[in-house]
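Quick check before the chapter quiz. The format below is the same one you will see on the exam, so make sure you can read both the input and the output lines.
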Amino acid sequence: YEDYHQDLDMAVTQNGWKLTLDDCVSDDSYAYIGITMEAPQADMIDEDATYQMFGRIYQHDSPEEIVAVASPVEMLENDNPDDGMLSFVMWLNLYSENHSFSGIYDFVFEYFVKCADDGSKILVQPDPWVIENVQIAPPNSVVTIDVNRTVPMLDGEATLTSLEISPLSLTVNLQGGSIYGIRDRENETVWA
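Here is the expected output.
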């Protein structure tokens, strides 16, 4: 973590609730964002409850292009439940065509909710938090290995074109052959 993380330290307050993007660990395809939420008053946090929030990330220069969605953002265990703060980690999978998390993004967090025991969700804060101009700069840590080898796949073959290895992920790139039209046990197409 120490070798690959990036401090962000960007905050915005909405109706007294302060959301801070603390830090980030990323590669070309994935990012983990550390987030702290601070209540207007410490007693507004129920120490026995679970909280969730939902976020979207946009390319800064193309606000209509959603780059990633975090739904829900995972709450971490609170070591000091009386401090009025909650910690979250947001895991993002890039689904933009630029194939790199390196860039400037706008983060929008909505629907900060408390999860009730019966499974329902109680809206805690209705207005979104928006943090703009967040620079994410993954370290150059991805190793790509070109393979170009035919491999067995399902009832046929496909081409293993390459492997991408980073501190966060292993990506296997396959092309052609039986990866198109994957079938379930009844031989019905479930993905093509």
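If your answer matched, good. Residues 183-192 have pLDDT under 50 and may be disordered.
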